[in-house]
Write a structure and sequence with these properties.
With about 230 residues, the chain is an alpha+beta fold. The protein is built from six helices and eleven strands.
Length: about 230
Amino acid sequence: MGQTDLSRPLGRDGGWAEAEPPCRNAAFAELPVRPYDLLTLGACRALAALWSLLRLRRAAGMLRHYLRATGGNRRIDAEELLALPPVRAAVEEQLARWRAEALARWSGDGRWPGSEHRLGNEHRSGDERWPAGERTPAAYPADSGWRDLLITRRVHPDWWLALRCVEFRLTGTVRVDAGGETAVDYRFAVHKAWNFDRGRSELGVPFAPFARLHETGLAREFTVTGEAFGHG
C-alpha cells in the first residue's frame, strides 16, 4: 500500500494564492458619456468586425463580449491555449519541478519498517535506507499557485489580441512508485480579468479611451476562465 503526503503542496514557492484582481479603473457606469466615447465605441465595433474578417475569431469574440456590457464570465478552450509552445513549456517546467520535489521527499523519507525503535526512554531513528525496489509508493499533492504568462503576437496573433497576458495555475498529484518512477495528474486552470488598464498602452495605442467605455457603461469588464486536464 502507498502513503499520501499531507504536508505543504509541491511547487508552490513563487506562486500566488489568489488570482490577480481587476485593475483600478473607475467603477462601471460611474462617469458620464462624452461624444468621443461614442466615437470609441463605434471604432471598437468596426474593429471587432475587421478581426472577424481576418479570422481572428477569439479576439473578435472577446471584444464583442466587452461591448455587450453584460459583465458575464467568458469561457475559453484551455486545451487550445495549452497547445501553444510557450504555454506548454511553462506547464512542463512546473511538472518537472513537481517530479523533482516529489522524488526528493520520497528518497529522504524512505526508511526500513521498524528502523525507528525505543531503547528504554530513548527514541532513536535508524540510518538504514530502503533498497530502491522496496520503498513504499507515495502520493504528493502539488500546486503551482497562480502565475503570469505572456502571449506575444509572434506566438499567435489571435490569442495575443484575445488575452495577451493571462494567469494559470496547476494543481494535481504526483505519484511515485516503488521503483522511483513518477506519474502526474493535473488540472490546468486559466484566469484573466479582461479590461483595459488606464495608463498603459500597446503598440503606442493608449488604453484610457477603451477603459472609459467600461467607466461610462458603454462596455463592461469581465472575467475569462478555462480549464483542461492532463496526465504525464
